[in-house]
Amino acid sequence: PLVSGSRSSKTFKPKKNIPEGSHQYELLKHAEATLGSGNLRQAVMLPEGEDLNEWIAVNTVDFFNQINMLYGTITEFCTEASCSVMSAGPRYEYHWADGTNIKKPIKCSAPKYIDYLMTWVQDQLDDETLFPSKIGVPFPKNFMSVAKTILKRLFRVYAHIYHQHFDSVMRLQEEAHLNTSFKHFIFFVQEFNLIDRRELAPLQELIEKLGSKDR
């Protein structure tokens, strides 16, 4: 028999842990506590006296872990055969380039694209010069632009799941989990203006719907 909860513990990539006892860990705990209050608009706001870069770093790691888990639940449905291109509906197709290993965008299947994407994000998160975990180590000058690129790319995984795999998500009874995670993500990127509106177009209707429920 399928043990309940065994599916959802399957992540696509290893989870990225924030070191316990660190200030970032305290921030993560703060974020989790305010999320529990149910008011997502408030939960994403920069806590008083905190450093914006650090707040964005902690949340970016958290979103990576959430998407990692959500995608992990549907990997068996996202195959070379079912998803031969990385798309978010018929009008949006993504080609992969990371600017270093792959400079010219390549057309690839969704599982391949998402593997490239999540590996790339993981490498950024593990880079201590970009995401310093030690107290007092400053964030680099280009931190904001790196964080924006990470979040822009993570959005594409949500977009692919919603457009191509929502039926599987519903069958697994994961849709509440997916919607809450995505809503948190959208409120966060809106609060700090981190993703260009054009990039959000594939899920525009959903974004408007989620936002209107909260006014």
Explained architecture:
There is one protein chain. The chain has helices at residues 23-36, 40-43, 52-74, 110-126, 143-171, 175-191, 197-200, 204-212, and strands at residues 86-87, 93-94. The protein has 215 residues and is mostly helical. The protein has a single domain (23-212), classed as Butyryl-CoA Dehydrogenase, subunit A, domain 3. A two-stranded antiparallel ribbon has the order 1-2. The longest helix is centred in the last third of the chain and has 29 residues, at 143-171. It is globular and about 50 Å long. The relative contact order is 0.14. Mean pLDDT is 90; it is low at 1-8. Zn(2+) binds at residues 78, 83, 160, 165.
Q: Identify low-pLDDT runs.
A: 1-8
What's the count of strands?
Answer: 2
Average predicted confidence as pLDDT: 90
CATH level-3 fold name:
Butyryl-CoA Dehydrogenase, subunit A, domain 3
Q: What is the string of SSEs from the N terminus onward?
A: HHHEEHHHHH
- Shape field: globular
Pfam family, one: Mob1_phocein
Protein name: MOB1A kinase
Keywords: Kinase, Metal-binding, Transferase, Zinc
InterPro entries: MOB_kinase_act_fam, MOB_kinase_act_sf
Q: Could you give the topology of this structure?
A:
Elements: H1 23-36, H2 40-43, H3 52-74, E1 86-87, E2 93-94, H4 110-126, H5 143-171, H6 175-191, H7 197-200, H8 204-212
At a glance:
The protein contains eight helices and two strands; from the N terminus they run αααββααααα. The protein has 215 residues and is mainly α.
